[in-house]
Amino acid sequence: MYVSREGVLEKKSRTFGAIALVLALAGLALMAYPSVANLINGTMMSKVNAEYSSAVSNLSDTKAKQMLAQARLYNEQLANGSASLSDEPEGYSEQLALSEDQVMGRLSIPSIELDIPIYHGTSDSVLMLGAGHLSGSSLPVGGIGTHCVLMGHTGMPESKLFGGLTKLKQGDAFYLHVLNEVIAYEVDSIDVVLPEELKTLGILPEEDRCSLVTCTPYGVNSHRLVVKGLRSSDKSSEESLMRPSSSLVISAVALGGSLVVLGAFFAGRALRRKRKEERMREKIMRRLNDD
Question: Which of 184, 120, 178, 182 is nearest to 149 (CA)?
Answer without folding.
Answer: 120
